[in-house]
Every structure is written in C-alpha cells, then in structure tokens.
Amino acid sequence: MKFQNSCGALLLVSVLLCAGGGPAICQVSSPPARPSNAAAESLLIGPGDLVHVTVFRLPEMETKARVTDAGDITLPLVGKLHIAGLTPTEASRTVELQYAAGHYLVDPQVSVLVEEYATQTVAIMGEVLRPGTFPIATPRGVMDTLALAGGFTPVADRHITIQRGDGEKQEVFLPNNAKDALAAKVLVYPGDLVVVPKAGIVYVLGDVMRPGGYVMHDDSTLTVLQAVAMASGTNHTAREANAVVVRRTATGYKEIPVSIKDMQKGKIPDMALEHEDVLWVPFSYGKNLVITGTSIVAGAGSAAIYHY
C-alpha cells in the first residue's frame, strides 16, 4: 500500500534521526508526556457517535469515523475496531495497542475525541413537573438538565440521584438557594437517569393556627419549633407543655412527649423531626386529653393539603 509505505518511510527517517542526530533531535521529536492519573470519565462511546482520531505528529493518520450499529469504526492500517462502550480515554489506548501490535507505529500517541454524539436521551423521573425522557447530544449541567423536565415540584427533595450509563450512582444536593444550586458543577450525560425523590412530610395537628402537612425543604431537616413556626404558631388555648410527637417504628407507633414551651424558653434543646412524624399540640379543654397516638396518626392521614 502506498499509504503504508509512506508511514514506514516516515518511521525510518525518525529512527535514523534519533540514532545519529544526537539527543537534542530526539527530545524535540518525542511526544508529550501522558498524564499519570487521568480523571474518571462517565460518558461512553455509543453507536452513531462521530469520533475524531488523531495520532501525534502524524497528521496523515487523522480520521473521522461514525461508530456503526455494531459499535465499530474503521481506521487506516488496522481496519475495523470495536470501541462502543469505552470512554474516549479507553478508546485512545485501544487504538494505540492495535497500531503497536501490528508493528505499524512505534510508541503511538493517539487521541480519540467524540465530536458529535448520536441522539441519545436522559431520563428524568420523580418530583419534576414533566417527568420523562429527553434527547440530549452533549453533557449538560444538572440544573440545565432538570429544566428540561420543568424543574422541581413543590414537594421535591433536593437530594437527587444520578445513575450513570455504566451503573454508577452519584448523589447530588441542590439547595433551595439559587446561587448555590447554580454553582453545582455536576454534569449529566446521555444515557443517564436522574431521580428526584419526594421530600419528607411532617404533620402539625391540633391547636395550631394552620394545621396540615409541611415539606422538609432544603437539607430535609425540620425541628419541632420550625414546624410550629410553619404552622403559624399555636393558638392561645394550646397546651404547649404537653405536645406529643407520634413516630412510626418497626414495632408500631411511638409517642414522644415534648414541651414546646420549654423549647421556646431554651430550657431543653429543640428536637429534630423525621419523615412522617406527627406533632400533636393538644387543646386546653379536657375532652381532648383522651386522644391517643393512633387517632392522631389517623387524623394526619386524612390531611389532604400540604403547605409548601
């Protein structure tokens, strides 16, 4: 082949120069050092992708090829090569090994870049306004990706999960603060799955101004005093010293006495609530003193309106 002969002549000239031209010529001709610890890549090459293959100091070996449905590309000298399912770094190393194994090149330095991704999708599920699959051709920021689905619903948890195409999972926290959320540098790639869970709900019932369910926003934490504040406080007839937190456990419901009055005065620390906890603030008149934890939970289950 004429192309193969020209490559062989080029290699021969390079060897002769290094043999007789002294160290300086060899140093000028040597390829750049390969980084020892390349950053982990999540984006994999797939069928239909357009890849750009270059070989250091050999522009005639440059190739642009579309990955076939079988996951192959065709390169000069080596022919078909399977690269689907590899990262660009792994594909570069695979091409280098093929050129070296066939004795076409000596210590080849190959770069494989994906110039164009085939139309692939990202799936966005959970607490977003329009869950579904969306076409993306390049990696996108996580906030930009969520915007495709219309953004969060009012009851969305800000701890989202991204399942990568290779099966790895990444947890990402996006605070309610817009500036901090936009600062997130996480990328979503074609083939990823983004799951937005539902935030925890805490119920505040009894003698409060606005009884109902309240979403555990931001970092998904909520205390007794915060929950009371979200319910617009207690009424003047409330027995703040005799409040109860009803919590579901593996063995049933547990009643935890709490004194909102002592918490407000700083006599005891504020108490953290958990998902589906029910904070019951009793009335001052006697007929409500016989209310049990089971009936409190039943009342929470009938509360159909969430306050955001």
Notes on the structure:
By secondary structure, the protein is α+β, with helices and mostly antiparallel strands. The protein has 3 domains: 40-116, wza like fold; 120-196, Outer membrane lipoprotein wza fold like (Roll), CATH 3.10.560.10; 201-307, Outer membrane lipoprotein wza domain like (Outer membrane lipoprotein wza fold like, Roll). It is built from 8 helices and 20 strands.
Shape: rod-shaped
**CATH homologous superfamily title of the largest domain:** Outer membrane lipoprotein wza domain like
Briefly note the CATH topology name of the largest domain: Outer membrane lipoprotein wza fold like
Question: What summary fits the major beta sheet?
Answer: 6 strands, mixed
SS strand fraction: 25-35%
What is the number of strand segments?
20
Individual helix count = 8
Order of helices and strands: HHEEEEHEEEEHEEHEEEEEHEEHEEHE
Provide mean pLDDT, rounded. Answer: 81
* Spatial separation of the terminal alpha carbons: 72 Å
CATH class type of the largest domain: Alpha Beta
Question: What strand order characterises the main sheet?
Answer: 17-16-19-13-14-20
Backbone structural class: alpha+beta
Which parts are unreliable, with pLDDT below 50 for 5 consecutive residues or more?
Answer: 1-39
The level of helicity is 10-25%
Total discrete domains:
3
Please state the second-level CATH architecture of the largest domain: Roll
Taking all Cα atoms into account, the compactness measure Rg is 31 Å
